[in-house]
Amino acid sequence: MIPSRWIPEKVHWRLFAIRLAADPTSYMRFVTNRRRPTGEEIPLSIRLFPEGPVTIRARTADMFTLLDLLPPTHLPPPELAPIRHVWDLGANIGLTMAHIAARHPDARIVGVEMDPENAALARRNTAAYGDRCRIVEHAVWPEEAEVGYVRGDVDEAAFRVDGDVNGHDGSATTITLNKLLEDQPPGEPVDYVKMDIEGAEQRVLRENVEWAERVRCVRVEVHQPYTVEECFDDLRRLGFEPSGEPSLWIEGRGKPVQGIRRA
């Protein structure tokens, strides 16, 4: 096998396009994304989404959220089936939500996204699944507050939250996971939580954590300075059995860690 570092970037994009695009038109739109005006909306038919096309914005981080669908590390592990209730924390433009909805037709997915433009596009990208997908426009935080955020680089697809609202790119109101749990049907667990909240995960896993008792499995993107080892310890304290696959950890990006409640 040829080492990936020896493959030109343009070839990488084309390989992803072949795997993801459902038709020749979408393939061409995919590979010419970065030659289009910034922000231009691009409809794409994607193999993973049989219910219809999704939309990304040219020359933005949207393309990287699409590439993050491969490999599908964001999906619930097969041993959790059946999947009926999912939280997508840091839903971005809704592609993970759409993928989970397509793979688990009985699942109801709540996506939490703090950026209004991303949230609006997430609603459009999940519209084909009707009321099974719902977007909550807040930032995830361990307490109700107004927090500041910093926009990430174009390839980070993220907004990093900070408790201080001063000196940042913007601010957002927060929602706690205990509050989110109030909308959960009584007695029913949250089968799967995908947590990609760009640095807020450390506090969310340590403060006001009553919600965790109702969760069967959580997948956390660990961002520096929080470490994988610290995340493992926090997940154990919450009653989860943690695991991670180092082959999926990319330098400078979030490291996926999973915790399953065995008892």
Topology record:
Elements: H1 9-20, H2 24-31, E1 41-44, E2 54-57, H3 62-67, E3 85-89, H4 95-103, E4 108-112, H5 116-125, E5 133-136, E6 139-140, E7 146-151, E8 159-162, E9 170-175, H6 177-181, E10 192-195, H7 201-204, E11 217-222, H8 228-237, E12 241-244, E13 255-260
Parallel strand pairs: 3-4, 3-10, 4-5, 6-9, 10-11
Antiparallel strand pairs: 1-2, 7-8, 7-9, 11-13, 12-13
Helix pairs in contact: 1-2
Can you tell me about this structure?
α1 runs antiparallel to α2. Helices cover 24% and strands 23% of the residues. It has 263 residues and is an alpha/beta fold.
The number of helical runs is: 8
Mean pLDDT: 89
> What's the story with the biggest beta sheet?
7 strands, mixed
Alpha carbon gap, first and last residue: 41 Å
Question: Main traits of this protein?
Answer:
263 residues; 4-stranded mixed sheet; alpha/beta; 7-stranded mixed sheet; disordered N terminus
Short description:
The protein is α/β, with parallel strands linked by helices and 263 residues long.
